[in-house]
Amino acid sequence: MSRILIAISACALASSVTPLMAADWGTSAPGFRPAYPMDMAPMEDSLDFEFGLRYFYGMGGQSFTNGSTYSATDLSHSLEVHGRIDDHSTSSFLKGHIGYGAITDGEFSMDDTTNGSYSTGRVGYVNADFGYLPINTGGVKAGAFIGYMYSDESPQNTGPITHGLRLGVAARAEFGDMFDITAEGAIIPYSAVSGSMANPGGTLTGIEGSLYGAAGEVMAGAHLTDNFVIRAGARATYLNGHVQADQPGEHYIEMFRWGPLVELTATF
């Protein structure tokens, strides 16, 4: 009798397992079923990052005309922190830098006649750009960008402050894994300006209005290792326009700063 019960139980168990096995007909047992191909390659990271430090030796100046022309020229030394993110999946980039420096040598003049010197002052600036590089030949990428600029040009610690719009074109050429060249040029169609201009003798003139101009930068780099690049180049910015001032009449302003750059950058 017990043998008959055991046989009936075995038949019932077999009949319940058979449909389950039929559902997985032709497949390996669950414990041996591979989830992914063994030779599957990892997904490529589409983002490149750059962060580093720059030194900017700036030669700058500003002039204010209201009948007579008052001007100041100077030399400055600035340290910058900069960064860049390239997204290869969208051919876009985001970059920017923050700089601050000291004016170490300057001269005041009126109507092109020098009548004073100074050795104190500051320069501060911020740039942020977002760009798109649709042209890509493999070694060369090119496109356009839109950005924001801020500057504080203050001989004797007082001067005009600007907030501007940048519209430009950019390109980068890579020569193997060893060298690269980056270039950009931008127009500045609008830049709000406010603050004061210092005339020779210490008289301050309050100003407010808008300026326009252009900017450009070229850098050439050598890749020291897979993760470090040293670059050198030059940058220039120019603004001009008519503004309102404390004195009545038409007032014309010019501002510029240009000079060489050197940077050490980490890439990853």
UniProtKB/TrEMBL annotation:
Has the keyword Signal been applied to this entry?
yes
User: Residue span of the signal peptide, if any?
Assistant: 1-22
- Which keywords are on file for this protein? Signal
Q: Which branch of life, at top level?
A: Bacteria
**UniProt protein name:** Opacity protein
Q: Which organism is it from?
A: Pelagibacterium luteolum
